[in-house]
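re: that chain from earlier
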Amino acid sequence: MADMGGTEQRSTAQLVATRLWNSRWLLAAGIVAVLTVYGFADMTGYVVLLACAVLLFAAAMLPAGVARQPAKDAAAIEAGGLQQLSGEYLAAAVADPLIIFDRTATIVHANAAAFAAFGGIAPGMSLSLKFRAPEMQALLDSILSGAAASDVVDYTEKLPVERAYRVSASSVGHGTDFYVLVFKDQSEARRIDRMRADFIANASHELRTPLASISGFIETLRGPARNDPAAREQFLQIMQNQTGRMARLIDDLLSLSRLEMKPYLKPGTEVDLRQTLDSVIDSLGPLARENGVAIERDFAEGPLNVPGDRDELFQVFENLLENACKYGQSGGRVVVTISHSDDGPEPGIDVTIRDFGPGIPEEHIPRITERFYRVDVENSRTQKGTGLGLSIVKHILTRHNARLSIKSEVGKGAAFTVHLPAH
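^ sequence. v structure.
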């Protein structure tokens, strides 16, 4: 009995101490108020002690939960707000396609993104009939049978446009008999992966071909042509050409890599197009004479300045003019034009490089700026092309907020126009 009495006394003491601690700020304010009154009024020390005792008693009797009331109120407000949010509102807030279904695999609700992605879905429709792919059927069976609380599969929607999704399924809460499907679009990531794989395959092929040629000639020089000066000189010249081809390819690959690492152009620098095009034409004069091509100028009057990087724009025009001299040499001339453009919302300057050679078939024009894409593979390699020049042009123009347009007619040549913003 004595132990029980001692335990009750300790419990009461702890309760009183807790109440005093929870009310410490209120108690301190009261004592300060009493002392202030004592300092300015005619109060005896006994009255002050009595007032402080009353404050202590009131604080000790204050319910312990009063101090925590604001926290309880906040929790109640939060719970009330969540109760007002329906599943429809929550589903609408999800950017990815989302479908809620029940134990019979019947659609209960689909958000706007799901309607846009799949179309023709509505509450009451069977998911098993809508998504008949084996992987989707296996996913639904796994979730509805209770074999897994959540599961993920890869799914491809074929129509109207092929899209690749990572689909996750899980139950909603506990004991609700509702489930949710979320479709995460992976199409762009898959496209980039394919581009990367194609790029590596193409680059490997372009490097492997000259390496195989060089290896074969080395083997010949060490064997049958060991004592044949004429053959040795011929083979060494071919080997030098092949190593030059590999060096050009590596330089172009490095240029593409640098451009992709810095996709945005630093503002503030202006380029004089007249001076830049004059420099490009002068640098390619020997190539033009070698191919029997005359380069003609048709530049507009007045200042022809645009914001940009001179070295990069020099590379753009050098690539385009070099292609015109090589592939349009049968036309005998190339015309370089600089003109003011008033098309579009903002004024700009157009630079057109036109040849009068065989031209480009229309079906090739949309893909001509793709990496390693060639209209004529053999002719391109004969002209020492790497298949990356127009890709570099496109990347540089994107950095300059500019664009490239191509017009061509078979037998009448091709015109490549660079549209540059003036400001």
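The chain has four domains: 13-61, 94-188, 191-261, 270-421.
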